[in-house]
Design goal:
It contains five helices and 18 strands. It is α+β, with helices and mostly antiparallel strands.
Length: 235
Amino acid sequence: MRDLVPAPVAVRIPVRGTGARFPVRRVYCVGRNFAEHAREMGATPADPAARGTPVFFLKPPDAVVLDGQVPYPPGTDELHHEVELVVALGRDAQPGVLDRGQAAALVLGYGVGLDLTRRDLQAAAKARGLPWDTGKAFDASAPVSELVPADAVADLRGLTLSLDVHGERRQHGRLADLVWDVPDILVELSRLYALRAGDLVFMGTPAGVGPLRPGDDWRASLDGVVEVHGRVLAR
C-alpha cells in the first residue's frame, strides 16, 4: 500500500568527530530551570531542596534548525531568545521510572541551542490559563549546534552558557545553577514519557531573555566546547 503523501524526513544533527548524524525523534523542553530566569518571568523559583515538579513542554522535531538562519515568525512582534544546553539521547530507556545512573547512561552528547519564543503569544496564553503551544512550538523555533559526544565533556556542571547579539552579551549562566540537572530531568521525563534514542532535551535558560529582530546576528556558546551562530531573517 502506498503513502498518500511523502513521509517526513527527520532532521539529522552532525556529531563532532564521528562522521555520523543524529536523527531527531522528539524535542522536550524544560521551563524555569534557572531561578533568576523564573524571577524575571514573574514566577516563584522552584526550591531545589523541596524538588517539586519541573515544567515541561514540547516542540515539533522539524522546528530544529541547523544553519542558524531563522525567519522572523508570523503572528508576533516579540520574538525572544532563550539560550540553552541541549542533551541528546543515544539509547532507549528501559520501561518505568529511571534512577539517576540509568538516566545518565542514556546521554549520547551535548549541544547548545535557542528555545525561540513568541513572547506575546505565550504571555497571552499564560494569562488565560491556556497551553503555550503557539508561543513555543512554531517553525524554526529550535536552532541547534552540532553535538559533542558526552565522553568529550569532562565537567558539565563547570560549564557556562552564553548568548551574544551583534557582539553584545545578552545571557550568561552557569550549569551549576540549574535547579534540576540532566539526570534529574531525565528521571522526571521518564515518569511521563517513553524516552527513546533520537530525543533532544532543551534544559532551560538563564536570565537575560530578550527580543530578536530581523537582521540580528547572534552567537550561542557552551563555554567554548561548542557554539552555533545565526541570523534572524525578514518575515
